[in-house]
Amino acid sequence: MINYFSELRYKEVIDIHSGQRLGYVCDAELDEAEGQIISLITPGRPKLFGLLGREDDYILPWKCIARMGADIILVELEANQPRRHREKRKFF
User: Cα separations (Å) of 27 from 11, 18, 51, 79, 89?
Assistant: First the structure.
């Protein structure tokens, strides 16, 4: 099965252990020297319908990915899964 990078944005990420929906892939980290994907990034959940911003983004290392299907990516989250703080954009 051949996947394009642009198709990853339309795949939902789900944790195998808890069944938690982590959202859709929004970004990826690439290793330029090796030409490989290091990790996928999904945005955190919105706080109060998005009015108070979002939680930290999930960083999903490639080794955590268990299965990739046509529309779903199954991952095995670790207990201390790294998360990245989202930068706030300035209006002016």
Answer: 12, 23, 22, 22, 17
